[in-house]
From TrEMBL:
PANTHER family: D-METHIONINE-BINDING LIPOPROTEIN METQ (PTHR30429), METHIONINE-BINDING LIPOPROTEIN METQ (PTHR30429:SF0). It is a lipid-anchor. It comes from Aerococcus urinaeequi. Belongs to the NlpA lipoprotein family. It is found in: Membrane. One of its GO terms (cellular component) is membrane. Keywords: Lipoprotein, Membrane, Palmitate, Signal. The keyword Glycoprotein does not apply. This is ABC transporter substrate-binding protein. The lineage of its organism: Bacteria, Bacillati, Bacillota, Bacilli, Lactobacillales. Pfam families: Lipoprotein_9 (PF03180).
Length: 283
């Protein structure tokens, strides 16, 4: 019978223990990797803001080791409900006025992570292609939501077409607050998404940036663009209970990074016009 030398037995025993130790280390490392890898669920709705997040923010998060999962919804309200109920972590398609409204109607606890690049609303030509040609009896289509109406009224006041009640806060104005209609223009309310197909039925149309983007409208045809008031800049939001998580600060840092801002400016250059407005604090 062949006998294994004592030194050989010791070596085999050593190698066996070494192998077990290596297996233990690999399993532990894999376990830690799984534990450290965090999935961020993004509730998206149609429009340029979710697209910008998935094309520019998500890859930067993935470079930091996160997994980004997109959950698509057909409208903003559904996306916000998903975040409120914990089905998703973040949404980037609403502004401060939207957030405050949903906090009230959904009894939610949405909080702002960071303000993000915003596409302003604008007046587009319908039957008329010059603001100077406005006259009594002309019509302007405006979305029938309270925020859309407010944006349209403020822009018309900036143009000198109407005068609004100065005692009413800008973010709360409605058509009832028109004190003077200097040009005799008539407001036609309709669903925002229905405005682009019907634009030739009115003299002018106020179209939100996201709707103009979805409809493929010619951005260079804009007759005038709004200067968004504070509450109209878009924001990334999550719920209050998640605000202390690391990914929240990482997303904020990306939106405020020089690299990301340059990517947004490059997109403006490709489009040939200032499509995106970058919040001042992010520059």
């Amino acid at each position: 019978m062949n006998k294994t030398p004592l030194g050989g037995r010791k070596m085999k025993k050593y190698l066996r223990y070494l192998g077990l130790a290596l297996i233990t280390l690999v399993v532990a490392a894999c376990g830690k990797q799984t534990e450290d890898t965090q999935t961020i669920k993004v509730a998206t709705s149609p429009g340029p803001y979710s697209i910008l997040f998935m094309e520019e923010v998500a890859p930067r998060l993935e470079e930091q080791g996160y997994t980004v999962e997109e959950i698509q919804f057909s409208e903003l309200r559904q996306a916000m409900i998903a975040v409120d109920e914990g089905e998703a972590d973040i949404n980037v398609d609403g502004n401060r006025l939207n957030t405050e409204s949903y906090n009230d109607t959904l009894d939610a606890s949405f909080e702002q992570i960071v303000r993000i690049p915003t596409v302003p609303a604008a007046i587009y030509p319908g039957q008329k292609d010059s603001l100077d040609d406005v006259e009594e009896g002309d019509t302007i289509a405006i979305g029938n939501g309270t925020v859309s109406m407010m944006r349209g009224l403020l822009l018309m006041q900036d143009l000198g077409w109407i005068t609004l009640n100065p005692d009413v806060e800008a973010a709360k104005v409605t058509a009832d607050d028109i004190e003077e209609n200097h040009v005799g223009i008539e407001i036609v309310e309709m669903q925002g998404a229905a405005i682009p197909p019907a634009i030739q039925d009115v003299s002018y149309a106020l179209v939100a940036g996201s709707i103009a983007y979805d409809a493929g409208m010619d951005l260079e045809s804009r007759l005038v663009t709004e200067e968004p008031i504070e509450g109209l800049l878009l924001e990334a939001i999550t719920t209050a209970d998640k605000m202390d998580q690391d990914w929240v600060e990482d997303i904020k840092a990306i939106y405020q990074s020089e690299d990301f801002n340059q990517a947004v400016l490059d997109r403006n250059e490709e489009i040939g016009t200032e499509f995106w407005i970058i919040p001042e604090e992010n520059q």
